[in-house]
Specification:
The chain is of the alpha+beta class. 44% of the residues lie in helices and 28% in strands.
Length: 415
Amino acid sequence: MLGETQAQKVEQKYRKCVEQRETLEYEEEIQFGDDPARWETRIAPVVIDGVVEYIAGASRDITEIRAQKQQLAELKQQYQTLAENFPDGAVYLIDDNFEYVRARGEELERAGLSPADIEGHTPHEVFPDELADKACKHYKQAFDGIATTLEQEYRGEHYRIRVTPVKPDGTEMTHVMAVAQNITEHVEDRRELQRQNEQLDEFASVVSHDLRNPLSVAKGNLELLREDCDNDRTRKIALALTRMDELIDDLLQLARIGEQVKNPESVNLAELSQSCWQNVETTNATIHLNIDATVQADRGRLAQVFENLMRNAIEHADQDQGKNETEDEDVTITIGELADGLYVADDRSGIPVDERDDVFEAGYTTTEQGTGFGLSIVKQIIEAHGWEISLTGSPEDGARFEVTDIELNRRYIES
């Protein structure tokens, strides 16, 4: 049944058990058919009246157990390699006494520590009490089966720490793991962004009050002047004051749209487009909607995108008519879907290729009535949503703005 070679090995074990009158435990590989298996065997002599009469034994197949042990050993080696080479951070393994069993990672040396400083010690023996208290609180939560994240500052560096339970399948939890990542640069960037936002808020306040107040005075005096003298000069003054109002509105928008979208809602793009169309002066303009999807977005800020793109198309259509001195023709604006986004296109003259990189710059305009901030506002709102915008089309076919990297929720099933 075993084959001659394997049978001889078994016979040797039995002889040794009888001759030495001792219990033997051993592992052996036995092949039944095509698949070899690992067996664990225990045999003992049965002595009657001082003579070994029998051998009693038991065997079990431990092939799967050995494979699991091998897998665990490989995982341990992988963990050790990962921990020792963990970039900009450190990895800690903590037992149920809150004692560090392992501590590895490039950040240890940067923080003035070594594995020997940490392993075999508790948090209160390594770190200041305030940090240690906070760490132990999160370790306890991990032993309760709850993964948590915290931020701590240590020796001038900032760390984000993820604490998770370590529970191998089918075994009781005896350890938790803490992975610390150095986020000092991120924290500094966050503070710089906050400082810039505060400056923008201050700028918006100046624009809102210090510029609008004298502008209101000028408008009031102009109205009084026009009661007695309404001519081309007063009309030019009125147009200039209106343009200043538009500039102030656009500057305020630029100052307030830089923040990321925090509370998006489901927005029906067709309904929003129709609503925006009602807010735009659409003389000699028509709209065609080829869109039937919803998207998670800030409704108010996305409305600004549509309205600015609509106005941009209409203003350039008016400019074309003025240059060509032709009979007024309606400009058609189309809003449609892409595989990963949407587009807004018109059927008038497009933007030359060498100017397309400039159109999103603040202050860029090709019309006398434009402020040059509309498309810059559009780009910032799009990027605040995590999307991308680009200008395509051709001088013959019109301008086409494509907004991509959007997760659209369609009402139909694509074929």
